[in-house]
From TrEMBL:
This is Maleylacetate reductase. The lineage of its organism: Bacteria, Pseudomonadati, Pseudomonadota, Betaproteobacteria, Burkholderiales. It comes from the Bacteria. Belongs to the iron-containing alcohol dehydrogenase family. Residues 10-153 form the Alcohol dehydrogenase iron-type/glycerol dehydrogenase GldA domain. It comes from Variovorax beijingensis.
């Protein structure tokens, strides 16, 4: 028997190769006239081309988006938007840029058009994160949900293979946790399994042929589905650990998701057997934790925290932070479970297969 509540979010998705050409039309549809284009420093040339294509619709460009959205950067971007008279923002890039757009929207209410170039999936969620004084705080607010998302696989053809794989596994993490979320439902279960399966097909194909447009399209399709799941249901242990490791120790976002996911799934396996069965089926494996670990390792992604900048000396503090204010999880992980979380982090640090 089913017993659930499902909430849908008002959002427009434009998907397809070459769909970037519709950006001006989509800004018009919002009733906006002046767009501030957001990007990371590395994506400035691509963002300049986007701004140039908008002509007088472009109010300016802010190219200092960084991981985990420091509050200082968010304030700087909001002030620039105000000074330029921008009435919307265009977030071109991955989770860092989308997160910056959300931070602007949270305070100003400016509508966001997201143009993802990675598979982070945050463009489909009303979840925001801001880092202040070494702690990453997350929340939900409908104001931060991008009003329109343009998925153009052409823009991801040059995404490096390594980042493609870690970004894709980051997306898989959203769907995996959706399958055992406290507020899950049958619609999200279907989307989660389909999204995981699409990424499981796409990532090995991208590693073989990075500019394979069909594989890039499949990966973006999977990212859309997985991000939609994250936007509709709650987060659990995996995301709490990643928010802790990323926000407090400045570890790279996609890589930390990739390393932690197999171990978080192993921790929850006995408490969520049906979710594990669906994840394993989508990945074509027998064990969900082992299948995720194999997908990462087999496609050249990091599997150890020690290889992505974590220090052994910080593991104790990470465990303390994670259990101090835990998210809901099918298996509790509060202060009483601190020793088990510390052991999980040690296995992730060493790159051991999930226990």
């Amino acid at each position: 028997m089913h017993d659930f509540t499902h909430t849908t979010h008002p959002q427009r998705v434009v998907f397809g190769a070459g769909s970037l050409r519709h950006l001006a039309r989509e800004i018009d549809a919002l009733g906006a006239k002046r767009a501030l284009v957001l990007c990371t420093p590395e994506q400035r040339p691509q963002a300049e081309r986007v701004a140039a294509s908008l002509g007088t619709q472009a109010a300016g460009l802010f190219d200092r988006a960084v991981m985990h959205v420091p509050v200082e950067t968010a304030r700087e971007a909001r002030e620039l938007a105000r000074r330029l008279g921008a009435d919307c923002a265009v977030a071109l890039g991955g989770g860092s840029t989308t997160g910056l757009g959300k931070a602007i929207a949270l305070e100003s209410g400016l509508p966001i058009v997201a143009i993802p170039t990675t598979y982070a999936g945050s463009e489909m969620t009303p979840i925001y994160g801001l880092t202040e004084n070494g702690l990453k705080k997350t929340g939900k607010d409908p104001r931060v949900l991008p009003r329109t998302v343009i998925y153009d696989p052409e823009l991801s053809r040059t995404l490096p293979v390594g980042l493609s794989v870690t970004s894709g596994i980051n997306a898989i993490a959203h769907a995996a946790e959706g399958l055992y979320a406290q507020d899950g439902n049958p619609v999200m279960d279907l989307m989660a399994e389909e999204g995981i399966a699409a990424l499981a097909r796409a990532l090995p194909a991208i590693r073989v042929q990075p500019d394979d447009l069909a594989a890039r399209s499949d990966a973006l399709y999977g990212a859309w589905l997985c991000g939609s799941v994250l936007g509709a249901v709650g987060m659990a242990l995996h995301h709490k650990l990643c928010h802790t490791l990323g926000g407090s120790f400045n570890l790279p976002h996609a890589e930390v998701h990739t390393v932690v996911l197999p171990h978080a799934l192993a921790f929850n396996a006995q408490a969520a057997p049906r979710a594990m069965a669906r994840i394993a089926r989508a990945l074509g494996g027998v064990s969900a934790p082992a299948a995720v670990y194999a997908l990462a390792q087999g496609n050249g992604a990091p599997v150890a925290l020690k290889d992505i900048g974590m220090r052994a000396a910080d593991l104790d503090r990470a465990a303390d932070i994670a259990v101090a204010n835990p998210y809901w999880n099918p298996r509790p992980f509060g202060p009483a479970e601190r020793g088990e979380i510390r052991a999980l982090l040690q296995r992730a640090f060493d790159g051991e297969p999930p226990g």
